[in-house]
Design goal:
Distance between the termini: 16 Å
Catalytic activity: dTDP-alpha-D-glucose = dTDP-4-dehydro-6-deoxy-alpha-D-glucose + H2O
Keywords: Lyase, NAD
Number of strands: 12
Largest sheet: 7 strands, parallel
Bound molecules: nicotinamide-adenine-dinucleotide, 2'deoxy-thymidine-5'-diphospho-alpha-D-glucose
Structural class: alpha/beta
Low-confidence stretches: 351-357
CATH architecture: 3-Layer(aba) Sandwich
CATH superfamily: NAD(P)-binding Rossmann-like Domain
Pfam family, one: GDP_Man_Dehyd
EC number: 4.2.1.46
Protein name: dTDP-glucose 4,6-dehydratase
Length: about 350
């Protein structure tokens, strides 16, 4: 049994679905179901006894203690977070609460659980913390890519809160011997991503004939990784990573935002042509994000060299799969936007409650 936090979000749901496709080991999935959590993403697991969903807040120590005692997981995989940079600019408090206090609460509970385990189970236990490349700050055009030893320099409330959580995770290894692993990954894209993030937002706006808002000059660079490749990296780190180590994960796909939006428009022109003209005509340059990091780039040499991990998708194949998924799953997008998925949740998980379901 593994315990996943945030498994109703974008990456967590992709991870849980893939985990249960490829192993028989059960998952207890703890998620508060904020606006970003969507049990509709896990609809295909309905009736699958290997998936135990618990609606709960990771900041609730009593609930976390109860879950660990009840399910006795061999690992905690911590995805839950407030994840959207723009939202963190407008309302940083929830980011500090979930990302810092929530991670601290989980670490405290995991420490108590860990010391209660018999020696042979302590040996196998892992706490895997899913983090971001944004903790390293912003690169100039000629700077080398982020490595695991790049100094932290977070610039947004989101990245600062994630940096705080990374430091706590590190401290619990060095001070208490909790066997932690941390992954710092670049921008993910793929199925089930909430349409507030660049790629699903652009697809959705284009299909609705709305403007495509590109921040600033559109020349900010991100390093893109298909979500299934991030999930395979997490599995690899869980299985073979060395306790106390951090691993950078990225796809070697540095693209400017404008390049990404152009490629998306061209794919949509091919797969779902607009009534007239090209989707590129919808692009609008808008006011920049405050404190907007200019460039991120990941050096994934450590995870590739020591664990043999490789991404399966190129940006071109991953983006095509993503556009195809959104075109085929408009009901999912509309559900997220209209709040219909919450009705589905009430219907199918009527008996859920905070605590052990
Ligand atoms: P997301 O916003 O799609 O999902 C977050 C999930 O966490 C949601 O299901 C939400 O309900 C849940 N959650 C939030 N607060 C909670 C709380 N207090 N208690 C329990 N559950 C709570 O995020 P995502 O994009 O899937 O990101 C997952 C993790 O990966 C985050 O830690 C994020 O920092 C990290 N990450 C994301 C990316 C990316 O590009 N999306 C890249 C690198 C790292
Ligand atoms: O680098 C990893 C991070 O990637 C994760 O830790 C975060 O959780 C995740 O949200 C993502 O952060 P970004 O800020 O890079 O992602 P976002 O999709 O919000 O924006 C990507 C780029 O596109 C960024 O430079 C801002 C720009 N942008 C974004 C939106 C939503 C636009 O130009 N227009 C938009 O409408």
């Amino acid at each position: 049994m593994i315990l996943v936090t945030g498994g109703a979000g974008f990456i967590g749901a992709n991870f849980v679905l893939e985990w249960l496709r490829s192993t028989s080991e059960p998952v207890v999935n703890v998620d508060k179901l904020t606006y970003a959590g969507n049990l509709g993403s896990l609809r295909s697991l309905q009736g699958d006894d290997r998936h135990k969903f618990v609606q709960a807040d990771i900041c609730d120590r009593q609930v976390v203690d109860d879950l660990l005692a009840t399910f006795q997981p061999r690992a905690v995989l911590h995805f839950a977070a407030e994840s959207h940079v723009d939202r963190s600019i407008h309302g940083p408090a929830e980011f500090v609460q979930t990302n810092v206090v929530g991670t601290f609460t989980l670490l405290e509970a995991a420490k108590a659980y860990f010391v209660s385990l018999p020696a042979e189970r302590r040996e196998a236990f892992r706490f895997l913390h899913v983090s971001t490349d944004e903790v390293y700050g912003s690169l100039g055009p000629a700077d080398p890519a982020f490595t695991e030893t790049t100094p932290y320099a977070p610039n947004s409330p989101y990245s600062a809160s994630k940096a705080g959580s990374d430091h706590l995770v590190r401290a619990y290894f060095h001070t208490y011997g909790l066997p932690v692993l941390t992954t710092n990954c670049s921008n993910n894209y793929g199925p089930l991503q909430f349409p507030e993030k660049l790629i699903p937002l652009m697809i959705d706006n284009a299909l609705s004939g709305k403007p495509l808002p590109v921040y600033g000059d559109g020349q900010n660079i991100r390093d893109w990784l298909y979500v299934a490749d991030h999930c395979s990296a997490i599995r690899e780190v869980l299985a073979n990573g060395a306790a106390g180590e951090t691993y950078n994960v990225g796809g070697c796909n540095e693209k400017s935002n404008l390049e990404v939006v152009h490629t998306l428009c061209d794919l949509l022109d091919e797969l779902k042509p607009a009534p007239k003209g090209s989707y590129r005509e919808l692009i609008q340059f808008v006011t920049d994000r405050p404190g907007h990091d200019r460039r991120y780039a990941i050096d994934a040499g450590k995870i590739m060299g020591s664990l043999g991990w490789r991404p399966m998708e190129t940006f071109e194949t991953g983006l095509r799969k993503t556009v195809e998924w959104y075109l085929a799953n408009q009901d999912w997008v509309n559900g997220v936007k209209s709040g219909d998925y919450r009705k589905w949740v009430e219907l199918n998980y009527a008996d859920r409650s905070a605590g052990v379901a």
